[in-house]
Design a protein that fits this description.
The chain contains 6 helices and no strands. It is an all-alpha fold. It starts with a helix and ends with a helix.
Length: 119
């Protein structure tokens, strides 16, 4: 499968994962709203990685991925960045992002797959 096909497939997969985040809101109304905004932001940024100038989206996603308080969404941002770097041939950087993403309880297997591909 060509890179653009893989990227489209991954973007669709990420969209599906973000919809799962919306399906399980937190018990308190305010934290749930903040989590939903973050998930929407992550979806928007992952789509922006496909644009002609992905640098602003890459920087914002890396900030999300580097935050310790971002939790599962931070790991998903790291997975998207690892996949992006893999597609660009930046294997060393991809391995660093994917190592952060392998702790995700839902997407850990995908991170393990892309780690193996990167190696």
């Amino acid at each position: 499968m060509r890179f653009s096909g893989r990227l489209a497939l991954f973007a669709g997969f990420l969209l599906m994962v973000c919809s799962v985040c919306f399906a399980h809101p937190n018990s308190a109304a305010e934290p749930a709203r903040k989590a939903a905004v973050t998930a929407k932001q992550l979806e928007k940024l992952s789509r922006a990685l496909k644009q002609s100038n992905p640098s602003p989206a890459y920087i914002q996603m890396s900030n999300i991925a580097m935050q310790k308080s971002s939790g599962a969404l931070g790991m998903r941002a790291a997975l998207a960045l690892g996949y992006f770097d893999y597609g660009k041939g930046n294997y060393a950087q991809a391995a660093k992002w994917l190592a952060r993403a392998k702790g995700d309880p839902l997407l850990g297997d995908y991170a393990a797959y892309w780690i193996a591909e990167t190696d």
